[in-house]
Design a protein that fits this description.
The protein has 139 residues and is of the alpha+beta class. It has one domain: Aminopeptidase (3-Layer(aba) Sandwich). It is built from four helices and six strands. The protein has a six-stranded mixed beta sheet with strand order 1-2-3-4-6-5, sandwiched between helices. Strand 1 and strand 2 form a beta hairpin. The longest helix has 15 residues. The N and C termini lie far apart (31 Å). The structure holds coenzyme A (COA). Coenzyme A binds next to helix 1, strand 3, helix 3 and helix 4.
Length: 139
């Protein structure tokens, strides 16, 4: 957990979740990608609607390991796992300000299904941080 929290704080800054809150979110699956150096990234998943839908609640890659394909690797692994569980779709939310994550998801087949302004109201979001984009990938 300490290693995941380091990535969480580094990846999400003022929007990072606390360790107790993350623990409440690990019901349907918390997975880490490791190599010899330690934890490279993590993904938190939640099964919805009797697992027809799997939500990617969080994912992050260590700052010094980004732009090397690990985000895509975690996403591909998540897609294969969801398919194995016979889920019909993967869904997620991403902030309008998060260009790296939006590009990662869009490049890997996720489509925008909704955009809402003002949905992310806590922790004083500014500008595009306030925009909540919902994306979905049909499996
Ligand atoms: C989003 C994140 C997981 C991407 O991980 P990554 O390992 O760097 O991603 P990859 O190397 O697999 O990149 C895959 C694609 O993502 C997009 N991408 C990644 N970083 C990007 C950046 N800084 N700017 C724009 N697009 C970016 C590109 O489309 C890239 O494909 P390309 O290399 O062919 O251009 C990582 O930046 C991160 O941990 N960010 C902080 C936490 C976060 O925002 N998580 C998502 C919450 S919704």
């Amino acid at each position: 957990m300490p290693a995941v929290m380091k990535l969480e704080k580094d990846g999400f800054g003022k929007f990072a979740w606390s360790a107790p809150y993350i623990r409440t979110k690990t019901g349907s699956g918390a997975f880490v990608l490791c190599d010899a150096t330690g934890i490279v990234g993590y993904v938190l998943l939640k099964e919805l609607g009797a697992a027809a839908e799997i939500s990617i609640e969080k994912m992050a890659v260590a700052r010094d390991r980004r732009k090397q394909g690990f985000g895509k690797l975690i996403l591909n692994w998540t897609r294969a796992r969801a398919k194995g569980k016979r889920a019909k779709r993967l869904c997620l939310h991403v902030r309008g300000s998060n260009i790296a994550a939006f590009n990662l998801y869009a490049q890997n087949g996720f489509k925008v299904t909704k955009m809402e302004e003002g949905e992310y109201s806590t922790k004083n979001p500014v500008g595009a941080e306030k925009i909540k984009i919902t994306m979905q990938l049909l499996l």
